[in-house]
Design goal:
8 helices, elongated, mainly alpha
């Protein structure tokens, strides 16, 4: 329920110019609905983990899938995680897995509410400007944050493969 409720709160949020357009044209104006799937699904998985004692970011299965991809050098680039139809591993889980890893990694740097501010910023702007909003709220582009997440996953997988203590 929390996962789907997160989608409602994220996608239905409108402010600024889009709010004026919504007033004129109705609920067809939803700038956050046009975000990449990995951004929407990642936020919902992040919230299901953030607000409960469970969630997929605490899942051994998700941890294993991320470490396996990182350890084998097969982490997907951002442009491969936008759909649910992938034929190869991780299949339809790509937007959920990679999006939540990005959200979790950025939030783990000390600010659990950063993605709420990011979505607030996006709701007042026009669609397809993810990097503009990321620079305002995250202090870096969404692609840089994506690469940092991948680098951290590779480092974690390397430490685990060597039999060392893995980071959480």
């Amino acid at each position: 329920i929390l996962h789907e409720y997160s989608h409602i709160l994220q996608i239905d949020r409108v402010a600024g110019v889009p709010a004026t357009l919504r007033y004129m044209f109705g609920r067809i104006v939803m700038p956050n609905a046009l975000a990449p799937a990995w951004l929407d699904e990642g936020y919902a998985v992040y919230n299901e983990t953030r607000f409960t004692d469970f969630g997929r970011l605490r899942s051994a299965e998700y941890n294993m899938m991320a470490r396996a991809a990182a350890g084998s050098g097969k982490l997907l680039p951002v442009d491969r995680c936008g759909g649910y139809e992938l034929q190869r591993f991780p299949g339809g889980n790509a937007p959920y897995l990679y999006g939540s890893l990005l959200h979790g990694h950025v939030a783990s740097q000390g600010d659990s509410g950063i993605w709420d501010r990011y979505n607030r910023s996006r709701s007042a702007g026009f669609p397809f400007f993810e990097n503009l909003h990321a620079r305002r709220t995250l202090g870096r582009s969404i692609y840089r944050a994506w690469n940092e997440t991948h680098d951290d996953l590779i480092a974690t997988a390397t430490v685990a493969d060597r039999g060392g203590n893995e980071r959480s």
